[in-house]
Design goal:
20% helix; 7-stranded mixed β-sheet; 4-stranded antiparallel β-sheet; 3 domains
Amino acid sequence: MLSMDPGKKISFQRRICDGDLAIVYERHDSMKAVKVHEGSELQNRFGVFKHADWIGKSFGSKVFSNKGGFIYLLAPTPELWTLVLSHRTQILYIADISFVISYLEVIPGCLVLESGTGSGSLTTSLARAVAPTGHVHTFDFHEQRAASAREDFERTGLSSLITVEVRDIQGEGFPDDFRGLADSVFLDLPQPWLAIPSAGKMLKQDGILCSFSPCIEQVQRSCETLKASFTDIRTFEVLLRTYEVKEGRMEYGAGDESDSLGPLPCKRRQCSSDGSIGSESFSAPVIMARPCSETRGHTGYLTFARLKCLQ
């Protein structure tokens, strides 16, 4: 997420400035968040990169080291931040996050309550969704985790959209200051059913609640509690399967009409047993798609419910 400073518009074309946060892309499985300082430098296996060379460039730029190696400087979007943040707790990933924001109907100007904050993965995406006039109030019972999350939101320029508070929502409920004001509530708690009655009081009429739970037993007990004040109760499990699409080679031979794929590198001629040249076989390029070897499985169950309207 780019800085929410009114003087800096949210744009991927904005130039990198001294003090900005950038995502350094080394390769698809190696990225890190780096604070840009004019007198600093980054050292890795590709060489030494001076931060002074980064300032003034657009996000997405390719920069070179003293050895000729290169990296890319990417904008710290919520999607990339989710991949590089410190895991203080188990986090939500993009598939669940996008589903949550869609089903909670989060739009600019919304007031969203979240418990608990954890590593702040979902919180950053919620902040972008409610910007520029909405706000996210997130609560965590662990004081150090809350402090670390607050520091992260400062780094990513989201502190004007997010308020982090230390509070045991399961035991104390949400503060009465938000009674009837929240557009949506998100719960990521071990015992969400304890916080559901309080969450219902915070929501506006027709407001939506979402509870994230890794175990189906948690879902069952939460749904029993939701029936008292909520309707349209639904539970989902989001499973993501990614594919690798690349060019390969297909072998063709005389009279061969099979669809088998083969890694033959070049065209060649077949010789018969008596040494004469026979029919040709050759390979041709073809686009192949296959599931990636690393596929994320179960993360958790998402239970959504809408507050019943008063008759």
